[in-house]
């Protein structure tokens, strides 16, 4: 399932001129794939038995679908693994993929997965209360089902029948398997969303919490209101509508009848509409398109149930329509167009949750107990706030708290002017960090949040000539006399001696000279056979080869290095939004664009960005066009000083790399670093916040260490 956030703000344009090698990773012929129509890609195939090998060496088996501009321009692979994981991989996530017969999980989303032994991080087990296994000899076995997965690969299935007899079955003997989970056949919608109250006793019926819904009886009549469901184990009893019990035998169908606000209230039990923005962006309803597995298309308001790739999808034709639920296996792709208003509301909510009047909110662990006995707990004074119960006035200052063990609290707060207020009733209080104060605008910049206005891009976007705040100073080492060092070549050969780096250009070198102790002299100019250069000039400094340039390394860990791209590919249009820009671009473009169609393609890209209508699909299409036409924008004086600074993370053993923008917006080209990280199976197990931190290199050494350990397992 593809989820594209088509953010309505101006985007950067990444002009990546790379040789497409994805087709070389595909081990199956074009005629073996079955194509289908797609809302997002010019080329896409139906899911079929296959495999994927990630860049970290992990092999995944299951159902695969490839997508891109054409069969020869594949952008990535989607896979539903045999254990039910749905992953969207990019061209730089995979080492190899193709079609292959294998075991089929017919209900991939119906198993509960746990990692029982934290020492065995590569072993997971999946469970279902009841399931089946189809064997190659044509027989079928049923019972409580347990799956065992090692390094994301299914190795065995164990069944336990009603007599508690266990049968362990090797994968080699299985054709397919699945779970048989209980779901009321008359219920329309996700049965798992029905919430159940705790039982009063083992003899009592299961009773659901009430929800807004509808019911159609066998006689065709329809009822709407609050529904409550009763069952005993897996036997349905009856359903209440507005406290009127309806015999189950008289019901034809029933289900949820949620408007969008009803749905949010049901899942959050909170009627505050602003709290919706505490949820991830993709779980908020936005205009969009759903492409179902049967090739039908829906247009309206679209949301994900959660942030996972295998999330169920919610759809409403408009705000006044009921929400319709689609399970993940019913959906191939979705697209959402998130408005500036939603982005602004989301950013505001994030800021308000973390800051109060500009001060960082502190958690409960910051409370320090000064005195404690059986009657009262006195906390040490700390900078904080109180909201007055009567006036709703926000008071900020030195806060003292006495909490009485028989309930009740006394709050004393003194503001900066020495005014003291004492109260026993309040509408909220807490601690603040006096030394951590950020305005909303500063918060956006620090957290690299997408700009909410087009003009803000200018302040967040630096050209390649600018220096990033806190960026390590480039090492300027240019000695014709040479110092101790060594060179490591692609073939593993190590050459030691007196080393000189020459032709310093902004922050990298173009020439390396080496003289060995035996008097041998080696000269390298823009030579890509060099893997690594190490200079020992009092301290060890590393340089890595990138596209023929020798670039200083910021950080390194094992085989992974972090450095600045010597030849950035992303153009900034922050200073080029005027109408005359296109005239100048066309005038200069005539020198290297072949025809009017070429010029039109570039103009269309610029126009779409100026309108804020730009997404990953547009970015990749432009990349393919540029690669096909072999356009070298570096030859244009117009574009020469408009490249945005890029940082790269590279595996020096394989040459694979990911790019991110340290100073700019990443809309439209986030797939570069995202794809690189998704080549690690362990990355997919991280929480969303941890994934984002790695993709933005919030802590470069932490990311490099994570990659090294992931690739070493």
Automatic annotation (TrEMBL):
* Protein name (Swiss-Prot/TrEMBL): WG repeat-containing protein
- Key words of the record: Signal
Q: Which domain of life is it from?
A: Bacteria
Which region is the signal sequence?
1-23
């Amino acid at each position: 399932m593809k989820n594209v956030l088509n953010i309505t703000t101006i985007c950067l344009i990444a002009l990546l001129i790379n040789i497409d090698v994805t087709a070389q990773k595909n081990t199956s012929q074009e005629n073996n794939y079955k194509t289908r129509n797609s809302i997002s890609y010019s080329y896409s195939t139906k899911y079929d038995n296959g495999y994927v090998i990630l860049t970290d060496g992990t092999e995944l088996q299951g159902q695969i679908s490839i997508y891109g501009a054409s069969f020869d321009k594949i952008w990535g692979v989607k896979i539903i693994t045999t254990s039910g994981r749905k992953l969207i991989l990019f061209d730089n996530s995979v080492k190899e993929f193709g079609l292959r017969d294998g075991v089929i999980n017919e209900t991939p989303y119906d198993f509960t997965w746990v990692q029982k032994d934290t020492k065995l991080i590569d072993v997971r087990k999946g469970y279902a209360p009841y399931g089946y296994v189809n064997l190659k000899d044509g027989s079928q076995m049923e019972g409580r089902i347990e799956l065992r997965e090692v390094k994301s690969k299914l190795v065995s299935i164990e069944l336990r029948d009603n007599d508690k007899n266990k049968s362990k079955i090797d994968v080699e003997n299985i054709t397919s398997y699945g779970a048989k989970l209980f779901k009321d056949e008359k219920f329309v919608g996700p049965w798992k969303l029905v919430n159940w109250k705790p039982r009063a006793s083992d003899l009592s019926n299961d009773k659901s919490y009430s929800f807004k819904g509808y019911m159609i009886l066998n006689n065709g009549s329809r009822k709407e209101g609050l529904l409550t469901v009763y069952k005993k184990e897996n036997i349905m009893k009856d359903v209440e509508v507005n406290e009127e019990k309806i015999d189950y035998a008289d019901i034809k169908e029933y289900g949820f009848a949620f408007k969008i606000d009803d749905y949010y209230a049901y899942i959050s039990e909170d009627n505050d509409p602003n709290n919706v923005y505490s949820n991830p962006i993709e779980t908020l309803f936005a205009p969009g398109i759903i492409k179902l597995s049967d090739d039908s298309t829906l247009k309206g308001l679209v949301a994900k149930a959660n942030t996972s790739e295998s999330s169920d999808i919610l759809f409403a034709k408009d705000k006044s329509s009921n929400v319709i639920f689609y399970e993940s296996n019913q959906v191939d792709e979705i697209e959402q167009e998130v408005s500036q208003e939603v982005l602004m509301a989301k950013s505001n909510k994030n800021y308000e949750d973390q800051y109060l009047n500009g001060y960082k909110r502190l958690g409960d662990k910051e409370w320090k107990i000064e005195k404690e006995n059986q009657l009262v707990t006195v906390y040490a004074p700390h900078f904080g706030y109180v909201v007055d119960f009567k006036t709703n006035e926000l008071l900020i200052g030195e806060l003292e708290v006495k909490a009485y063990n028989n309930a009740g609290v006394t709050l004393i707060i003194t503001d900066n002017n020495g005014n003291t207020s004492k109260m026993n009733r309040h509408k909220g209080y807490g601690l603040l960090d006096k030394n951590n104060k950020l305005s909303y605008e500063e918060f956006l910049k620090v957290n690299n949040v997408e700009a909410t206005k087009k003009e803000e891009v200018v302040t967040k976007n630096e050209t390649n000539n600018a220096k990033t705040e806190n960026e390590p100073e480039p090492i300027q080492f240019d000695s014709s006399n040479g110092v101790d060092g060594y060179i490591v070549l692609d073939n593993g050969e190590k050459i030691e001696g007196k080393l000189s780096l020459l032709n310093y250009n902004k922050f990298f070198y173009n020439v390396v000279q080496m003289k060995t102790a035996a008097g041998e002299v080696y000269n390298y100019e823009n030579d890509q056979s060099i893997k690594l250069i190490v200079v020992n000039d009092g301290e060890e400094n590393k340089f890595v080869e990138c596209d023929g340039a020798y670039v200083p390394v910021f950080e390194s860990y094992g085989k992974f290095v972090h450095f600045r791209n010597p030849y950035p590919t992303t153009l900034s249009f922050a200073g080029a939004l005027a109408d005359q820009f296109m005239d100048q671009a066309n005038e200069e473009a005539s020198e290297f664009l072949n025809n009017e169609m070429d010029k039109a393609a570039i103009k269309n890209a610029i126009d779409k960005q100026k309108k804020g209508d730009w997404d990953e699909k547009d970015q990749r299409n432009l990349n393919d066009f540029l690669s096909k036409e072999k356009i070298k924008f570096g030859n244009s004086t117009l574009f020469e000083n408009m490249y945005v600074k890029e940082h790269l993370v590279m595996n020096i053993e394989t040459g694979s790399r990911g790019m991110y923008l340290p100073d700019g917006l990443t809309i439209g080209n986030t797939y570069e670093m995202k794809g690189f990280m998704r080549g690690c199976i362990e990355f997919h197990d991280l929480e969303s916040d941890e994934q984002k931190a790695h993709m933005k290199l919030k802590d470069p050494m932490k990311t490099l260490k994570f990659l090294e350990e992931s690739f070493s397992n």
